[in-house]
Amino acid sequence: MEFPTLGEHCQNEECKQKDFLPLQCKCGKVYCREHFGEHCTSGLCEMAPKPKDVNLKSDDEIFRCSSKGCKKGNLHEMLCSKCNKHYCIEHRFHPSCPEIDDETMAMKIEQYEAPRKQFHEANKHLQQKITENIRKAVQSSAKVKTATKIHLMRIKQKALGPKTIPASDRIYFAIKKPANLDMKPVKIVTDVNNVELIETLTLDPDLKDTVPLFISSKWSLGRVLDSICDTCNIKNDNNKLGDAKLRIFRQLDGYCISPLKMDVEMNDLISKEILLEGDKLVVEYISNSVLNDLDENSHIFLLS
Prior knowledge:
Layout: E1 8-9, E2 18-19, E3 23-24, E4 30-31, H1 33-41, E5 51-52, E6 62-64, E7 73-74, H2 102-140, H3 142-158, E8 170-176, E9 186-189, E10 211-216, H4 221-232, E11 244-250, H5 266-271, E12 280-287, H6 288-292, E13 299-302
Parallel strand pairs: 5-6, 8-12
Antiparallel strand pairs: 1-2, 3-4, 6-7, 8-10, 9-13, 11-12
């Protein structure tokens, strides 16, 4: 062996295996972790640490499992989050707890869920406000509506995409490819009051510098991004380690479509008018560190 003097043999008669991190009792005997607990709970050694319940504080004593019939002890306490009693590793995830009835547990769960529900409501309001501000000019301008229809018609005439998608499921967009592999600067918005209103807007129905394509309305955003990259020949390393990640933005305002949740379905984005069929979309690289700093209440905009 490379370190022949390292560790000691367990003095349990049925074990005697060499342990590199042995535990020594005050009586001088040395045991592996498993048999040290048995030695302490056997009652045969007067100098061994005495078993104790959870709330005792002496470091000389061990923690005994509260599960009925279990005699295992631990040097460190592992408290059940429901009844605050100590359990060994084998029994720490016990399915029920007699100390708390179903009514009390339901009340505690409701208390824990309340902040999450409040957050989702606030986030929903923020998203609706952003959509309302951004779509304001589109909904009020007959010229813009006409331009959008012409734009969609031209996209359908030249659109590329997987032929396996049924015609009834196809939705159409114009895609602007990234000019290079550089990561683009972005602005993070968490406060609805920081969203700039779009008072005037002109949509250009020309498809210049874009690739018209179709995808399935039933796909997730992540699958859509993969399909766009395949159709437009865009380098996509989203499934690999690295700092550069691809995301989809509206050309209208530079708004990033669901930067964190790539499993959201296109049907959902269309129904909430986060996307409109015929939109011009921009695919760009952004830093993964930006994404790691986001929470569900944050929104990203491309800086022009």
